[in-house]
Write a structure and sequence with these properties.
Elements lengths: L9 H7 L12 E5 L2 E4 H13 L11 H24 L6 H14 L4 H10 L4 H23 L6 H14 L6 E11 L6 H19 L4 H8 L13 E2 L5 H7 L11 E2 L3 E12 L2 E2 L1 E12 L7 H16 L5 H8 L10 E5 L6 H9 L9 E3 L2 E14 L2 H31 L2 E3 L4
Helix pairs in contact: 2-3, 3-6, 4-6, 7-14
């Protein structure tokens, strides 16, 4: 379950501003939450953290007194949740904190050594940073447990939502399509011979499609229309396409190719590349990748593994060796005998930092070495494709959407309840 963003901006803030610690001989308590103090220094740090993390497009901040009161209230709510998490047995182990720290580094395109160096420059110890991460994870776990128990989505609700989405798809205003277009031009009032010649060429193209030629390559070879980007017309609302195109493609699965259709201008062959209803795709992006994995240990540090894979990457790029050969020779993953080939993978199969790199890569591109919880990876994206979601995947997506909506409805009352059950004494209202 996604943590509501207004409660905790810690991860975002840490990645952009750094958590600064200040101490003062004149520090004092500004509030108590079940006898646990919040100090003036802590409050000022949180305010500074919020101000420093703001971007140029951020909304104006409220007046100083209002901002101070709002930040203090947020800290009280956070403290009450942390106390509840500890009292009810929520635990976060060291490995989870390690992964959160690695994720922050990856989001900022840093390794752990660079991240820690940046934090030190901002006056933050590694211990303080990791404690902040641990607190964030504790609250996330608490919210997941408490809110999940309050959310029940029945199969009947899921089926009703799916039926409503299918009904909405009938309205062109609710449906977006991206079509590939192969066009054979005909002159105005063409002769029978010209039409026959175009039809023969059209049949030749269909035969080559059946033989395994890609639609995209045939666009490059034959299309009289725009050939850049493999003839893609772009994701747009269905009512912005010619009705002829919509009618020819509306019953096709994603990835399927229509029959030839004729307009006054010529013959058109269409491929459904993507379809969305109310902004939601009925496809998923899958990646075909390969990788080389080195696992740091007593004989190989993480930094050494990164340098080794960076050198391997340079040798591959210069043609001195191949990715497959290096994967078979040095990779410590089970995919090594296959040259590091991981096959086609749906979203969620790999850890988030691995998938984030895949999403950024172009086909045939090799990324810089990546650190994950499993070790150090060298990743190459071979291919990317859109695949239509199965009925089971569509149902699961609809269930998750309903769950997220219900979570928003129950979250605010739950937070108010946690806050209301805590004994809070504000000593310095500002």
């Amino acid at each position: 379950m996604k943590t509501p963003v207004w409660i905790f901006s810690l991860l975002l803030t840490l990645s952009t501003a750094g958590y600064a610690q200040t101490t003062s001989n004149n520090d004092y308590i500004v509030a108590l939450v079940n006898s646990e103090p919040i100090t003036h220094a802590e409050l000022e740090n949180q305010i500074r953290q919020l101000v420093d993390s703001r971007g140029p497009q951020s909304a104006p901040l409220p007046a100083a007194a209002e901002l101070r009161a709002a930040v203090l209230e947020r800290m009280i709510v956070e403290r009450a949740q942390l106390q509840m998490a500890r009292e009810t047995g929520v635990r976060v182990d060291t490995a989870q904190v390690d992964q959160a720290e690695a994720n922050i580094a990856a989001q900022n395109q840093l390794d752990l050594v660079q991240l820690r160096a940046n934090l030190e420059k901002r006056g933050t110890t590694q211990a303080a940073f990791r404690q902040q991460l641990r607190d964030q994870l504790l609250i996330n776990r608490l919210q997941e447990r408490e809110l999940e128990a309050r959310i029940k989505i029945s199969d009947a609700e899921v089926e009703a939502a799916l039926a409503a989405r299918k009904e909405a798809a009938k309205d062109p205003h609710n449906q977006e399509i991206n079509l590939g277009h192969l066009f054979l031009a005909l002159a105005e009032n063409p002769s029978a011979a010209a039409v026959a010649q175009a039809q023969q060429q059209a049949q030749k193209i269909l035969d080559r499609l059946k033989s395994g030629d890609s639609f995209e390559s045939l666009v490059q070879e034959f299309s009289a229309a725009e050939r850049s980007n493999a003839g893609q017309l772009g994701l747009r609302r269905a009512d912005r396409y010619p009705p002829l195109f919509v009618n020819a493609s509306q019953n096709l699965a994603v990835g399927a190719v229509s029959q030839w259709v004729r307009s006054d201008a010529g013959l058109h062959l269409l491929k459904v590349l993507e379809r969305r209803v109310n902004g939601l795709p009925d496809t998923q992006v899958q990646h075909h990748a390969r990788h080389i994995l080195l696992r740091p240990d007593a004989s190989l540090t993480q930094e050494q593994a990164i340098k080794q894979l960076a050198a391997v990457r340079e040798r591959i790029l210069t043609g001195a060796t191949s990715f497959e050969a290096q994967a078979r020779a040095i990779s410590q993953d089970g995919s090594a005998p296959q040259g590091g080939d991981l096959g086609w993978a749906a979203p969620g199969l790999f850890v988030s930092e691995f998938e984030q790199v895949l999403m950024r890569l172009r086909e045939k591109e090799i990324a810089e070495p990546l650190v994950s919880r499993f070790g150090v990876h060298l990743i190459e994206l071979l291919e990317r494709r859109n695949v239509e979601l199965t009925p089971a995947q569509l149902r699961e997506r609809e269930r998750n959407l309903l769950r997220a909506k219900r979570a928003e409805e129950v979250f605010e009352p739950w937070v108010r309840d946690v806050r209301g059950r805590a004994f809070v004494e504000i000593r310095d209202p500002g």
